[in-house]
């Protein structure tokens, strides 16, 4: 079936019901990830990305095809599935594009060639591929990682989180934010093995996936600087150096996005426009969220409107914003007791 996404017409097999990965025969295409690919295109255009990107787990090739056509970037394609490789070759022809297509385990290719950007988009956890992806990057290159093992990362399956990411997450208003930070922190620790440091360009959670874009800098000093940002977090969301029985992490404690890299999004792309604008408003804020439901329960009043509490906090000089990680979370540098007082008087 001929499908369309962005400026690309391509063949593929739609998975799920536009929501999650689902189970399919044929070569996987998930329309729910259009937002993720739209953002990839917008980001690469914003940073004026030049060089060669490896679409390491291409499936139909839709991501790499869009980057090649909509960002005018050279893309290498790779998939270990021969059916996918055949389809990518067809899809390149269909769009009058030329590229190298590898039928390989991406981990092998990443030990043979160096890239300016590597995109890792596996089924489930990216943890096994991060070290080899780092290996295949030039200094200053960009590593893009998708993770769909949300149950493990968010701490629903704590053993799996620890097994894959050597970190602990727990159920809380901040578990999605901490999941992204655990993924980023794990990558910083893997990079340090290779004397590389990370610079966060942009990270987010949406629907059923986490995604992080990192710039990689070679050098022991850069590695040490990044490692210094990977810490534990106490149950009241203070950054601490060691784990305790109820702490979270280790996780990345720096910014989750850098405002200067955030692209402008066309307001017609409503979901992505909202996501990037909220991310813009919260990315300079502190780590962890205040839970509006719990605060209201403690004050024994009906839950006030989130946005009115945000405005009240701002009017008192505090940082306050909504969050992409939870509609009922408030990112603020005001203490819990200040939030309780503001809610009581709202
Ligand atoms: C989630 S799909 C990729 C989706 C694609 N990036 C997109 O945007 O539509 C995962 C793909 O990775 C491929 N794959 C999984 N492990 C791989 C590996 N180690 N090396 C190369 N390809 C791999 C699978 O065959 C599958 O086609």
Give structural notes.
This protein is an alpha/beta fold and 346 residues long. The chain has 2 domains: 2-261, Vaccinia Virus protein VP39 (Rossmann fold, 3-Layer(aba) Sandwich), CATH 3.40.50.150; 289-344, Phenylalanyl-tRNA Synthetase, Chain B, domain 1, CATH 3.30.56. It has helices spanning 34-46, 62-71, 82-94, 106-112, 130-135, 150-153, 158-165, 175-193, 220-227, 270-282, 292-299, 306-315, 336-344, and strands at 2-5, 8-11, 13-14, 28-29, 52-55, 74-79, 101-103, 115-120, 137-147, 196-206, 209-218, 230-233, 239-240, 248-252, 290-291, 320-323, 326-332. The mean pLDDT is 95.
Please give the structural blueprint.
Blueprint: E1 2-5, E2 8-11, E3 13-14, E4 28-29, H1 34-46, E5 52-55, H2 62-71, E6 74-79, H3 82-94, E7 101-103, H4 106-112, E8 115-120, H5 130-135, E9 137-147, H6 150-153, H7 158-165, H8 175-193, E10 196-206, E11 209-218, H9 220-227, E12 230-233, E13 239-240, E14 248-252, H10 270-282, E15 290-291, H11 292-299, H12 306-315, E16 320-323, E17 326-332, H13 336-344
Parallel strand pairs: 3-4, 5-6, 5-8, 6-7, 8-9
Antiparallel strand pairs: 1-2, 9-11, 10-11, 12-13, 12-14, 15-17, 16-17
Helix pairs in contact: 1-2, 8-9, 11-13
The site of S-adenosylmethionine (SAM) has 20 residues, from strand 4, helix 2, strand 6 and helix 4.
EC number: 2.1.1.216
Enzyme class: transferase
Protein name: tRNA (guanine(26)-N(2))-dimethyltransferase
């Amino acid at each position: 079936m001929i499908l369309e996404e962005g400026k690309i017409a391509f063949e593929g097999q739609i998975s799920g019901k536009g929501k999650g990965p689902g189970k399919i025969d044929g070569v996987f295409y998930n329309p729910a990830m259009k937002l993720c690919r739209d953002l990839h295109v917008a980001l690469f255009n914003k940073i004026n990305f030049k060089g060669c990107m490896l679409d390491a787990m291409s499936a139909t090739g839709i991501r790499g095809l869009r980057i090649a056509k909509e960002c005018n970037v050279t893309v290498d394609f790779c998939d270990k599935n021969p059916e996918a490789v055949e389809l990518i070759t067809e899809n390149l022809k269909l769009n009058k594009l030329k590229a190298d297509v590898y039928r390989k385990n991406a981990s092998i290719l990443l030990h043979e060639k160096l890239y300016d950007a590597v995109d890792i988009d596996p089924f489930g956890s990216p943890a096994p591929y991060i070290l080899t992806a780092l290996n295949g990057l030039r200094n200053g290159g960009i590593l893009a990682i998708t993770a769909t093992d949300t149950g493990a990362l968010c701490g629903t399956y704590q053993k799996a989180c620890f097994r894959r990411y050597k970190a602990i997450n727990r159920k809380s208003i901040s578990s999605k934010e901490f999941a992204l930070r655990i993924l980023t922190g794990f990558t910083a620790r893997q990079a340090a093995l290779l004397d590389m440091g990370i610079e966060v360009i942009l990270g987010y959670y949406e629907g059923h996936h986490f995604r992080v874009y990192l710039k990689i800098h070679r050098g022991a000093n850069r590695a040490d600087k990044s490692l210094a940002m990977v810490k534990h977090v106490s149950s009241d969301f203070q950054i601490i150096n060691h784990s305790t029985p109820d702490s979270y992490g280790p996780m990345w404690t720096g910014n989750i996005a850098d405002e200067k890299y955030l692209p402008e999004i066309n307001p017609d792309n409503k979901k992505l426009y909202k996501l990037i604008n909220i991310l813009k408003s919260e990315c300079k804020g502190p780590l962890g969220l205040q839970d509006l439901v719990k605060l209201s329960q403690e004050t024994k009043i009906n839950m006030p409107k989130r946005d009115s509490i945000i405005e009240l906090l701002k009017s008192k000089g505090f940082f306050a914003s909504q969050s992409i990680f939870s509609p009922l979370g408030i990112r603020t540098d005001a203490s819990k007791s200040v939030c309780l007082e503001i809610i009581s008087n709202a």
